[in-house]
Design goal:
With 91 residues, the chain is α+β, with helices and mostly antiparallel strands. Helices cover 36% and strands 30% of the residues. A 4-stranded antiparallel beta sheet has the order 2-3-1-4, with helices on one face. The protein is globular, with a radius of gyration of 16 Å.
Length: 91
């Protein structure tokens, strides 16, 4: 128990940011080019740390910096800009 308390304190004091995840279901993704198109669009946005794209599940997991946020409207706009359609957003 003591180790867990110390590890938690060290983590919070180290200033390490925790990423927030938003899962987006996307219609129309079928190939690596689709994934690359979405990466180009999203990784230009401030606060977007990483994307995890699954062609099999047709999902994009947007990993945001702890202090960042992106609206559903902006997500829809970016997905449409890349040529795809948002089927749902899970926060």
């Amino acid at each position: 128990m003591r180790f867990l308390m110390i590890a938690t304190a060290v983590f919070f004091l180290s200033g390490t940011a925790i990423a927030k995840d938003i899962t987006v279901n996307v219609n129309g993704m079928v190939c690596d080019f689709c994934a690359q198109s979405l990466e180009k669009v999203f990784l230009k946005e401030d606060g977007v740390q990483n994307l995890d794209i699954s062609l099999k599940n047709k999902t994009v997991v947007i990993q945001l910096d702890d202090d960042a946020d992106i609206s559903d409207e902006k997500i829809n706009e970016l997905i449409e800009w890349a040529g795809y359609e948002t089927a749902g957003i899970i926060r």
